[in-house]
Design goal:
- The chain is of the alpha+beta class and 336 residues long.
- The chain folds into two domains: 122 residues, 2-Layer Sandwich (60s Ribosomal Protein L30, Chain: A); 164 residues, Phosphoribosyl-aminoimidazole Synthetase, Chain A, domain 2, CATH 3.90.650.
- Helices cover 33% and strands 25% of the residues.
- A hairpin with a 5-residue loop joins strand 3 and strand 4.
- Helix 3 runs parallel beside helix 4.
- The longest helix has 17 residues.
- The radius of gyration is 20 Å and the shape is globular.
């Protein structure tokens, strides 16, 4: 898709207020002060033992704005848990516990209970304990009826079982696990698209079977149990959680130097929600691929033998998985 279609300018993530390059530069600077920063989760050796603690933290971004508009608060906590536990499972870590931070101008107990119920549900889906949290009432800081969330997950993995991408070689296979929708990234751009489209969140999603609001608020898939099960049977070399940065920025994070990926864009069907977002926002392919998950929320880099096993299980109906590409010599991600 070209930058302009007639007189309608193409929307972009940066134009919507989010600069991925600035975020990358900040991580680069922080890494100078705190070496080891930059992975999906941080590893900390557990005493003199044989395990690492793996920690991750995240929020749900401006998806919260849609929660306020739709009144859908009971699943946003699932998103919160998902964003952190999906990050730490990329190292092969089993989540142990989760902490949350809930901040608001004036505490609405009933609303907060709905949010926390979602967090409890998310912890159940990932087999981890909700260990504690903080509720902060901050008058005049947030708009009436609004709140912000942060989450923190800690897991554990044996040192000799860490998934770190070091053994990835050209010819390894990229397996994609489907997403439920936009998940919890890219909503600053999504909200611009909704505003331009003229549709209400109560209107039916074009090509879909739900309202636009329901499609956008679908909770992030928690991949923990599925991914740990696949890891347990061998052949998984690297895992990328497809969040902000999309395929283009997240997949290369797991590769050794000198390796890249080719993605076959016809390997799975682009869900109606993403088709609508691209068409309504006149968004270029490259921008879509660097902002959204496009229907694939987790990518595993596996040996060809493991790929055959995983795809065989998928064919048998055990779960849904797609062979979306291969590892190649070179740098970055190319699309065919």
């Amino acid at each position: 898709m070209s930058k302009k279609d007639g007189d309608i300018e193409s929307l972009s993530y940066k134009g919507s207020g989010v600069d991925i390059d600035a975020g990358t530069e900040l991580v680069r600077r922080i890494a100078k002060m705190a070496p080891g920063i930059g992975g999906f989760g941080g590893l900390f050796p557990l005493g003199a033992g044989d395990s690492y603690l793996v920690a991750g933290t995240d929020g749900v971004g401006t998806k919260l704005k849609l929660a306020f508009e739709t009144g859908i608060h009971h699943t946003i906590g699932i998103d919160l848990v998902a964003m952190s536990v999906n990050d730490i499972v990329t190292s092969g870590a089993k989540p142990l516990f989760f902490l949350d931070y809930f901040a608001t101008s004036r505490l609405d107990v009933d609303l907060a209970e709905k949010v926390i119920k979602g967090i409890v549900d998310g912890c159940g889906q990932s087999d981890c304990a909700l260990l504690g949290g903080e509720t902060a009432e901050m008058p005049d800081f947030y708009a009436e009826g609004e709140y912000d969330l942060s989450g923190f997950a800690v897991g554990i993995v044996k040192k000799d079982s860490v998934i770190n991408g070091k053994n990835i070689v050209a010819g390894d296979v990229l397996i994609g696990l489907p997403s439920s929708g936009v998940h919890s990234n890219g909503f600053s751009l999504v909200r611009k698209v909704v505003a331009r489209s003229g549709l209400s969140l109560k209107d039916e999603l074009p090509g879909g079977s739900t309202t636009l609001g329901e499609a956008l608020m679908a909770p992030t898939v928690i991949y923990v149990k599925q991914v740990l099960d696949i890891i347990s049977r061998g052949g998984v070399k690297g895992i990328a959680h497809i969040t902000g940065g999309g395929f283009t920025d997240n997949i290369p994070r797991v590769f050794p130097d000198g390796l890249g990926a080719v993605i076959h864009t016809d390997a799975w069907e682009l869900p109606p929600l993403f088709k609508w977002i691209q068409q309504s926002g006149r968004i270029e392919d490259s921008e879509m691929r660097r902002t959204f998950n496009l229907g694939i929320g987790m990518v595993m880099v596996v040996s060809p033998e493991a790929a055959l096993r995983i795809l065989g299980e998928a064919k048998n109906g055990d779960y849904v998985a797609h062979r979306i590409g291969e590892v190649i010599n070179g740098e970055g991600v190319t699309y065919q």
